[in-house]
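Late entry, evening session. Most of the bench is empty. Finally got around to the prediction I had been postponing all week. Sequence below, unchanged from the version circulated by S.P.
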Amino acid sequence: MAITKEIKNRIKSVKGTQKITNAMYLIASTKLRKAKGELDLTRPYFNSLQGEIKRIFRISEEIENKYFYPVTGEHELPGSYGYLVITADKGLAGAYNQNVIKEALRLMKEHENPKLFVVGEYGRHYFNAHDIPIEKSFLYTAQNPTIQRAREISSILLDLFNRGKLAKIFVIYTDMQNAIQSKTCSTRLLPFHRAQFIVPDSQEKKIEKPFEFQPSIEKVLDNIVPSYVTGFIYSALIDSFCSEQNARMNAMDAASRNAQEILDELTIQYNHIRQSAITQEITEISSGARSMRKRRSVPVS
């Protein structure tokens, strides 16, 4: 009976764990829907900004601006490179955090004197534990990405870029491609390549009237680009958050299914042991009854 008691306790424990994983799955799915809705509300504004930058380059592709690679096409710029790494605040999300950190380490090895900027407790703990210096750690939680926080991050990175402290800035985050697959991305945030905004001739709309920019095209770009950078960082924060919740949903769903398999095996094992105990009791009772009948049938001398 001691074995059956142990199995019953194990079944109770697994059921408790399964309730937790089911609850975490539902919470992650709710957060995922909410984050997607917030991104959809803000995306049209930043798409419009991108459209305005493309409109500027339709007028002149030879514009010189500090936020773009030189017209000469020089890509190797001297100076430190900055890396904005977006991780989660906690685990239980499969390989989500490990993939981001692995990509960040790979990029940082390619250039000397990297400057690390981290969002998320998981990344902060990892880099601190491995004695990797962090230039700036954004201490607010990664669980609630907002446009205001994206603006704060972009202002710090843009200030360092404008002062020449950073020659290039990369963002390492996770892009949720669909409900099943997410991909770790490393994107150069600054400087932009002008090819990103030059529209091919086949897609270019005919400009009937020339545009005038006051005080100048360069000044207009200086004002538009920071907002566009903010939008890109906000999109990366939301994409990462959605990917985290999606990874957690998949991990919790797999954990719940594994728990159910364990419960099925334990139930079968418990039933077998219980059936064996009942069979043994019936056998003992039958044997005792036969023994009693034999004793009564023996004549007394």
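Two things to note before I forget:
The two ends are 44 Å apart (CA to CA).
Residues 4 and 270 are 6 Å apart (CA to CA).
Will write this up properly tomorrow.
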